Structure formats: C-alpha cells, structure tokens
C-alpha cells in the first residue's frame, strides 16, 4: 500500500495521520480533514500536507481512492454472486462495448461529415423512439458551443422541417436500427430537396445507411437490435459529441459561445452563476 511505503519519510504529525488511516481506512468515508486532524491531535493543514507527502493531490484525492477501495472490498466480501446481478452485468457489457466501439467508425467518413456540418447553412436533427433523447441532448450540446441547430421532437414536424430545407443544408439522422419509418420519411424528404444527410446507426446495411451521404456506424456488436439498443444509444451519443467537438474546432472560435453558455447557466440555475449563493427563483429545466 502506498501509504505504508511512504510513512517512514513523514514528519511526526503527518505520521500520526498516516497511521490513523492505516489502522482504519474507512475513516475517510466518515470524517473530513479537520475531523481527522482533531482525532490525532493535529490540524487540517497537516492532514493535507501528509496526503501530499504520500503522493496524493490532497485529502479529497486520497479520500476518493480509499472510498473506492472500500467499496471494491465490500463487493468481493459479498461473493461472486454479486456479479450476476443485472446492474453489474449491464455495466460490464457497456464497458466492453465502449472499449471496442471506436474501431467501427469510418474515420474518413467522420472527417467528411465534419466538413459537411461545419459548412452547413442549416443543421437539422431528426430521430424518433429510442433516439429522441439523443436528438435533444445533442441539440443542447451544439447550441452550448454557439452552433445553431433545429431539433423538432414530433416526427411530423421533423418531416415538415426536412421539406423546407435546401441544398447546403444538412440533416443529422439518428436511428439505432436504421429502420425507423418516421426517420426514413424525414430523410427521404430532405434528399428530395437537395439537402445532405449524415446517418448515425448501429447497422451499416440498414435503410437509413443506404440513403445517407455519409454514414457513421458505431455499436455494431452483431447482437439482435433489442439486446443492443441501450448501449448503442450511449455509443451514438458519444459519437455525436465527438462530431460537435470536431465541428466546433473546424469552425474556429465563436464570439457567441460564451454568451450562449451564460444563457444556459442562467436558465438552468435561475440566474445564479456557479459558486454564487443559492436562491430559490424559478428555473427552466433543460
């Protein structure tokens, strides 16, 4: 253990802190720096210095690691049956797919999609069913960096919006299965008026992928669609966030970004900036 290895180089006060933690590591989940200092007859500042001398950023860093280790030890103590729990199976599956997912993305197609979106006159997001949440999340992400997008939630409004597009406009169409009928209708309408389409899906041979100018496939695990829908939606959201970051970089700094972010903070917090005292004025839930 790192603490045991470092204890010989600590001063008397710092050594008391280290010994207390070695004796009872769970102390970190119960006590703050000042409380530990009082318990061993020293100060909060000495607790902080002791942590730094042992190689940690400070007491919060050490505390986080100790609490994590305490939780891991508790899991082992409860036995291997814990890992059969649905919660652990789901997270383990998601972790495996997150690790493998980037390899399924065509980076050249991604680069072309960035150029399309960065130069677009209008950007329209479409998606329904399980993909509707991703549409809302990415619309907020785009606008938080000063890039205007349109993201109607109701499929009929998406269809009408696509009919009003023109060459130079881009549709970002999100569908895990690539077979959602309302999304396909919207994309068909966009293509009919000359707009470009970037598809986000898990299936490279889906109807949506076949209709798109650029297709970005992620989460193609080979498992049936109902079994992969949850992790696929998470992966598509990651991919969309990567696209936003790349488009922001391609467009260069925007004077609007800081203003837009300030507006979002005010809307979410009821005009209270981070760090300001709490107030109870009405807020808008984004």
Fold topology:
Elements: H1 2-6, H2 12-23, H3 27-30, H4 33-40, H5 44-53, H6 59-77, H7 86-100, H8 107-118, E1 123-126, H9 132-144, H10 155-163, E2 170-174, H11 181-192, E3 196-201, H12 207-211, E4 214-217, H13 225-251, H14 256-269
Parallel strand pairs: 1-2, 2-3, 3-4
Helix pairs in contact: 2-5, 4-5, 8-13, 9-13, 10-11
The CATH topology of the largest domain is given as Rossmann fold
The CA-CA distance between the termini, in Å, is 44 Å
Model regions low in confidence, pLDDT < 50 over at least 5 residues: 279-286
| Count of individual helical segments | 14
Task: Work out the number of β strands.
Answer: 4
Percent range of helical residues = 55-70%
Instruction: Give the class from helix and strand content and strand pairing.
Output: alpha/beta
Q: What characteristic shape results from the CA principal axes?
A: elongated
Order of helices and strands: HHHHHHHHEHHEHEHEHH
Describe this structure in words.
The C terminus is likely disordered. The chain folds into two domains: 76 residues, Winged helix-like DNA-binding domain superfamily/Winged helix DNA-binding domain (Arc Repressor Mutant, subunit A), CATH 1.10.10; 154 residues, Rossmann fold. Helix 12 links the parallel strand 3 and strand 4. The chain is elongated, with a radius of gyration of 25 Å. The longest helix is centred in the last third of the chain and has 27 residues. The chain has 14 helices and four strands. With 286 residues, the chain is an alpha/beta fold.
């Amino acid at each position: 253990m790192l603490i045991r290895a470092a204890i010989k180089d600590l001063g008397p006060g710092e050594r008391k802190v280290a010994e207390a933690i070695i004796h009872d590591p769970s102390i970190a989940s119960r006590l703050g720096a000042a409380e530990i200092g009082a318990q061993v007859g020293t100060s909060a500042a000495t607790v902080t210095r002791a942590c730094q001398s042992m190689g940690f950023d400070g007491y919060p860093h050490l505390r986080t690691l100790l609490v994590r280790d305490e939780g891991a030890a508790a899991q082992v103590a409860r036995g291997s049956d814990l890992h059969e729990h649905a919660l652990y199976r789901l997270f383990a599956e998601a972790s495996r797919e997150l690790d493998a997912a980037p390899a399924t993305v065509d980076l050249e197609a991604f680069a072309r999609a960035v150029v399309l979106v960065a130069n677009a006159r209008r950007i329209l997001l479409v998606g329904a069913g399980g993909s509707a949440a991703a549409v809302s999340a990415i619309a907020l992400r785009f606008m938080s960096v000063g890039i205007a997008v349109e993201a109607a939630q109701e499929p009929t409004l998406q269809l009408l919006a696509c009919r009003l597009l023109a060459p130079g406009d881009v549709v970002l169409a999100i569908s895990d299965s690539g077979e959602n009928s309302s999304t396909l209708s919207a994309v068909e309408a966009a293509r009919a008026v000359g707009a470009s389409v970037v598809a986000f899906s898990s299936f490279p041979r889906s109807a949506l992928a076949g209709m798109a100018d650029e297709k970005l496939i992620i989460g193609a695990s080979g498992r049936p669609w109902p079994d992969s829908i949850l992790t696929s939606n998470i992966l598509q959201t990651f991919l969309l966030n990567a696209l936003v970051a790349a488009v922001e970089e391609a467009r260069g700094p925007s004077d609007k970004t800081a203003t837009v972010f300030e507006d979002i903070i005010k809307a979410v917090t009821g005009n209270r900036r981070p760090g300001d005292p709490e107030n109870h004025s009405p807020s808008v839930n984004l």
